[in-house]
């Protein structure tokens, strides 16, 4: 069963200022300006549920960009989730962010490969990401590898990061949130 979002019309269209609220509308426009795109559709759609948007934004912000894991590793996890869930929207957003935090094009591309030459730490993190997305659990071997490199707090954050972006990919697919058009190169 594929999780690819067919090229169809959005099920819920991005809201305007009144529909999405000041916070979502402002963040969508600032993000679009930063990315050289139209306003961020994800914010304009999720903002239609203003109460939920505020809570989600607070939670998501604790994972990225204000998480405890190194930003490069956070972006590798998000890119791997986007690859595994075939979420082009999530991948497009985070390829841009990954470059801004210092990941190379080669590192970004390697998140689509199972045989990439990662360090033992990154290999453990990405193996855990794979299992969390595919199985919703970690086997003992992957757990042991994680314990060699991460403490309790970082493991908890990694599990929440990977599963949050899995949830977000599902939301993007189900609501048919469309990528923004570039406004300039």
Could you outline the blueprint of secondary structure elements for this entry?
Blueprint: H1 17-35, H2 41-46, H3 50-63, H4 71-84, H5 88-100, H6 105-110, H7 120-134, H8 140-149, H9 152-175
The shape, in one word, is globular
What is the rounded distance between the termini? 35 Å
What's the alpha carbon Rg, rounded to whole Å? 17 Å
CATH topology of the largest domain: AhpD-like
Protein structure class: mainly alpha
SS element count, helices: 9
CATH class type of the largest domain: Mainly Alpha
Largest sheet: none
Summarize the structure.
The chain is mostly helical.
Could you characterize the architecture of this molecule?
The protein is mainly alpha-helical and 185 residues long. It folds into 2 domains: 17-63, no CATH class; 71-173, AhpD-like, CATH 1.20.1290.10. 65% of the residues lie in helices and 0% in strands. It is built from 9 helices and no strands. It has helices at residues 17-35, 41-46, 50-63, 71-84, 88-100, 105-110, 120-134, 140-149, 152-175. Helix 7 packs across helix 8 (140-149). It starts with 16 loop residues before the first helix and ends in a 10-residue tail after the last helix. Mean pLDDT is 95; it is low at 1-5.
């Amino acid at each position: 069963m594929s999780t690819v979002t067919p090229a169809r019309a959005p099920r819920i269209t991005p809201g305007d200022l009144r529909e999405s609220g000041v916070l979502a509308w402002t963040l969508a426009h600032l993000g679009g300006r930063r990315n050289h795109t139209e306003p961020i559709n994800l914010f304009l759609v999720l903002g239609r549920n203003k109460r939920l948007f505020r809570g989600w934004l607070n939670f998501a912000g604790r994972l990225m960009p204000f998480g405890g894991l190194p930003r490069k590793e956070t972006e590798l996890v998000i890119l791997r989730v986007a690859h595994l869930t075939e979420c082009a929207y999530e991948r497009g957003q985070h390829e841009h962010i990954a470059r801004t935090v210092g990941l190379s094009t080669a590192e970004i591309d390697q998140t689509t490969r199972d045989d990439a030459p990662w360090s033992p730490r990154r290999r453990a993190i990405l193996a855990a990401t794979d299992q969390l997305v595919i199985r919703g659990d970690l086997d003992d071997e992957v757990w042991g590898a994680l314990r060699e490199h991460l403490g309790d707090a970082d493991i908890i954050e990694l599990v929440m990061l990977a599963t949050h972006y899995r949830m977000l990919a599902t939301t993007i697919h189900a609501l048919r949130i469309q990528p923004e058009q570039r406004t300039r190169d």
